[in-house]
Design goal:
This protein is an alpha+beta fold. It has a single domain, classed as Sulfite Oxidase, Chain A, domain 2. Helix content is about 15%, strand content about 20%. It contains 9 helices and 12 strands. The strands form 2 sheets. Strands 3, 4, 7, 8, 9, 11 and 12 form a 7-stranded mixed β-sheet that branches. A hairpin with a 2-residue loop joins strand 7 and strand 8. The longest helix is centred in the N-terminal third of the chain and has 11 residues. The protein binds ligand MTE. Ligand MTE binds next to loops. One of its GO terms (molecular function) is oxidoreductase activity. Keywords: Metal-binding, Molybdenum, Oxidoreductase, Signal. It catalyses: L-methionyl-[protein] + a quinone + H2O = L-methionyl-(R)-S-oxide-[protein] + a quinol; L-methionyl-[protein] + a quinone + H2O = L-methionyl-(S)-S-oxide-[protein] + a quinol. This is Protein-methionine-sulfoxide reductase catalytic subunit MsrP.
Length: about 325
């Protein structure tokens, strides 16, 4: 397990407080009522999404204590019933629809400008990767946020396995395409499949993470099972779900939202409270499951790890 030095934004181990100590149902209801998340949410049912998953025995995995929070972990029942996954609908209560997704067999293709192109079965991949848990903040461009215990492995490990060639500059990620399962994909005005991209430097940054689990279990389907990206210094739309392909390329990928509206959603999408989106001021965020609005932090509080990657890119729209 990798142990890193304490970061400036870390606070003492308060955030690992057991759920029942900080969970206040009234607060959650107040927070959700404000966000409209209660409609059809089935609040009160325990999530039981992961039971049949063949990788269930791998979890929980050891926590990497280097990644700490400045806030409480969002209750699982809240985070798992308030999701963006347009393949299953353009609202937040997609979790029942997402259960239709078949996650075995599942393969991830590594292709493009690499020495080791291959298609990996998800369980082979899980067996080869060093699994760990990390507590990360998540900031959606829609100005809500949560804090989640992801399980998975550093994206840098997958990059190492692929063996990028000298000219490779970007990673292009792609989600599955199956409109018979994901009815949102029948909406032909969206440019399916969902695509996202990172620079190779971003992909090998210590924070870039591939999540295969959450809350000590395999990823529930609505979180993007069986494998998703997590880039906590960027707006949440970069965290592409249910990945089937990663291509290494010298061409900057055009992402799903960028293709839909490039004046609002860019390639970089780094969190910055001082750069408002057309529809959402970004200075503060609604913390899911609470009635709290917090000040948003530059790079979502991860400047120390990531700001250096952008210092020479003064002409790029880094924050949209
Ligand atoms: N990935 C796919 N394939 N489809 C999506 O609609 N939504 C994105 C991102 N990844 C999305 C996706 C957006 S806008 C956000 S905020 C996060 O997933 C939401 O992740 P969560 O549901 O785990 O909170």
């Amino acid at each position: 397990m990798k142990i890193l030095k304490r970061r400036s934004w870390e606070i003492p181990e308060r955030e690992a407080t057991p759920e029942h100590v900080f969970f206040n149902r009234r607060q959650i209801l107040a927070g959700l009522a404000g966000s409209g998340a209660l409609i059809g949410s089935g609040l009160g049912m325990r999530p039981a999404f992961a039971e049949e998953n063949p990788s269930a025995g791998l979890y929980p995995v050891p926590r990497n204590e280097a990644y700490k929070l400045d806030r409480e972990i969002t209750k699982e029942e809240i985070a798992s019933k308030y999701n963006n996954f347009y393949e299953f609908g353009s609202h937040k209560q997609i979790w029942p629809a997402a259960q239709k997704l078949e996650i075995r067999p599942w393969t991830v293709a590594l292709e493009g400008m690499i020495d080791n192109p291959q298609t990996l079965g998800i369980d082979d991949l899980l067996a080869r990767m060093p699994l760990e848990e990390r507590l990360y903040r998540h900031r959606c461009v829609e100005a809500w946020s949560m804090a989640v215990p992801w399980s998975g492995f550093p994206l840098a490990e997958l990059v190492k396995l692929a063996g990028p060639q000298a000219g490779a500059k970007y990673l292009r990620f792609e989600t599955f395409l199956d409109p018979s399962v994901a009815s949102g994909q029948k909406q032909s005005w969206y440019p399916w499949p969902y695509v996202e991209g990172l620079t190779l430097e971003e992909a090998t940054n210590e924070l870039a993470f591939i999540a295969t689990g959450v809350y000590g279990k395999p990823l529930a389907k609505q979180f993007g099972a069986p494998i998703r990206l997590v880039t906590p210094w960027k707006y949440g739309f970069k965290s592409i779900k249910s990945i089937v392909k990663i291509s290494f390329t010298d061409q900057r990928p055009v992402s799903f939202w960028e293709e839909i509206q490039s004046s609002e959603y860019g390639f970089w999408a780094n969190v910055n409270p001082e750069v408002p989106h057309k529809r959402w001021p970004q200075s503060t965020e609604q913390v899911l499951g609470t009635d709290e609005r917090r000040d948003t932090l530059l790079y979502n509080g991860y400047a120390e790890q990531v700001a250096g990657m952008y210092k020479d890119l003064t002409d790029e729209p880094l924050f949209m």
